[in-house]
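This entry is listed below:
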Amino acid sequence: MPPQTDLSRTIADNLARVRERIADAEARYGRPPGSVALLAVSKRHGAERIQAAHAAGQTLFGESYVQEALDKQAALSALPLGWHFIGRVQTNKTRDIAAHFDWVHGLCELKHARRLGAQRPATAGPLPVCVQVNLSGEASKAGLLPEQVSELLDQCRDIAGISVAGLMTLPAPADDLAEQRRPFAALRALRDRLATPALPLTTLSMGMTADLEAAVAEGATMVRVGTAVFGPRPPAGER
């Protein structure tokens, strides 16, 4: 591992470049300045990298593995960080997710919505969640098909411990900007069709390191960026 000062400098420089990309995309596509939040995806990166990112002004972090995240939360408990769960929700992990995370991206099943709501501490307030949409129809990917989303939204209305904030998608990689924009435009159109005054679905969680400009162009309110902030993700078990 490089000296802490070098690590801090590298991550601060990386964050500055990502923020510049977001700001440039906001300006290019007519988005208000600051309308797109940056979620730094820190899964498989150590607590020292999160601490360095926080020192550079980053407060929102995305984790996919519950126990790994709980260990980091304990190590960094003195810092005012926002923790977003971006992995696949598992039934045996809902209690920890409900108790220890500020957001959930990737809700796909009613049973998980019910468990998260029932297990959310009353003192924490409703847990904001995004419903994950599988726009490609790939069986290997999590998420609801677009035609299934409305039913889950209706079913979640009466679950007191959660609050559906919006939609999330994880499209297949594409190199061409127009191809990158296509699934993000589809998610935005789905949101526009399903949103109501009572359920405005204001959050569109979409876009990563390689395609964040396309996501901003199509209305993303939160981009999930890991590699461009922290560098390549180390293999499982190595940090």
